[in-house]
Design brief:
- With 177 residues, the protein is of the alpha/beta class.
- Helices cover 29% and strands 19% of the residues.
- The protein contains 5 helices and 6 strands, in the order E-H-E-H-E-H-E-E-H-E-H.
- The protein has helices spanning 17-27, 45-59, 69-77, 134-143, 167-173; strands spanning 2-6, 31-33, 63-67, 86-92, 118-126, 147-151.
- Strands 2-1-3-4-5-6 form a 6-stranded parallel β-sheet, sandwiched between helices.
- Helix 1 links the parallel strand 1 and strand 2.
- The relative contact order is 0.18.
- The model has no long low-confidence stretch (mean pLDDT 96).
């Protein structure tokens, strides 16, 4: 199983749960790619699309784990003609499709592609995420027949809200449920 972990705006370096997850996958002899995307503090949708398309072509992951803006990036990637289907997609803290933030404006508004290119889709959100209303995330999950998990009072499910080592995501990715 090959897992690609895609960070959001600003990256997800330690002690963020994505960095912890990458470490845990490696410790369990899994194959993981956790790249730092170009200019992560001032991201460009087109640069990120180009970079991640190359990573997808070279690495050929079975599982992709997106956090925050990486989810919107995945939705944009699904507009591309040459996407290949993966086995599992985990979308954590998906921002609103109509987010209005100057620094990341090239990613919005974000369309919902017809095909999400994943056999299984898992969406995990918090009930108090400042970047998306739970109802919008639930509608997106329904659109793709995704499993939908809400975590109480978890904010944007990042380091600021206390999500370093995160057993739930590690168990899901390593299939230890």
């Amino acid at each position: 199983m090959k897992t690609l972990i895609l960070h959001g705006w600003g990256g997800s370096d330690a002690p963020h749960w994505q960095a912890e997850l990458a470490s845990e996958i490696a410790k369990n002899y899994g194959t993981v790619s956790f790249p730092l995307l170009d200019n992560c503090h001032f991201p460009s949708k087109n640069r990120w699309l180009k970079q991640v398309k190359q990573i997808l072509d070279d690495f050929k992951p079975d599982t992709v784990v997106c956090h925050s803006l990486a989810n919107n990036l995945w939705l944009w990637l699904c507009q591309e003609a040459d996407m290949r289907e993966i086995k599992r997609l985990f979308m954590v803290s998906l921002p609103s499709l109509v987010t209005q933030e100057k620094t990341i404006k090239t990613f919005f508004p974000c369309p919902l592609p017809k095909n999400i290119y994943a056999k299984e889709v898992h969406i995990i959100v918090s009930d108090n995420d400042p970047w998306v209303k739970r109802q919008e995330a639930k509608e997106i999950a329904s659109h793709y027949d995704a499993t939908f998990t809400t975590i109480a009072n978890a904010g944007h499910i990042n380091t600021d809200s206390g999500y370093g080592k995160w057993k739930l995501i590690e168990d899901l990715i390593l299939e230890k449920q």
